[in-house]
Amino acid sequence: MSEVAESFPVGHPLAGFEDQIDQLRECGRLFHSRGWSVGTSSNYSVVIPGDSVELIVTASGKDKGRLKRGDFVRLDQEGCPTQADQLKSSAETMLHVVLAAEPVSAGSILHTHSVWGTLLSDHFYDQGGFEIEGFEMLKGLEGTATHETEHWVPIFDNTQDIPSLAREVQAMIESQPEKISHGFLIRKHGLYTWGRDVFASRRHIEVYEFLFECVGRKLGL
Ligand SMILES: CSCCC(=O)C(=O)COP(=O)(O)O
Ligand SMILES: [Zn+2]
Q1: What CATH number labels 18-219?
Q2: Which of 36, 70, 71, 139 could be a cystine partner for 31, CB 3.0 to 4.6 Å?
């Protein structure tokens, strides 16, 4: 980052969260350069823990490769702005809200639109998802100690009704948590993953995107 970004003034909804915001901006630069967040696709969040969880989420429609500190919105646990006069938050805000809430209680949620994720999400949609097994890189997913692992990636149908999709995701989290342990794909759309903080969720994006390319190339897609 060449520019010296200014801190927010006292009383601004994003004041005090400059470091977390800069971590998300760094994700944007990296993911854009890798082709995973091009054309304003993707959205990113970091969760502010507390009695009442809050989120800082990317504003909608921003170029994720060139995010500024001001391109973020602070939301309450329902996904509503904590203060008026903020930008419009991501169109996919409610997916972040569901993943920030219990029982997932993510510390950061990241969403990418890679070519391999998009192709696999269509290829395996009729089976509801697909298994990844045997790759050493699986150990990059939190809590995975061996490559001798079968990791299920669920796929949800795409829709413009994000609150409805968020309810579907929540239902799977409640009924089949083992099937949605680290992330999911949306058909012909992209990947959602999360972690305890931005570094963990960023690692999960990198691991999934690596594995998706392996699976896709092996299939000859
Ligand atoms: C060309 S990207 C289409 C919208 C989308 O899927 C996305 O991830 C970005 O939406 P946002 O409102 O978060 O900018
Ligand atoms: Zn998207």
Answers
A1: 3.40.225.10
A2: 36
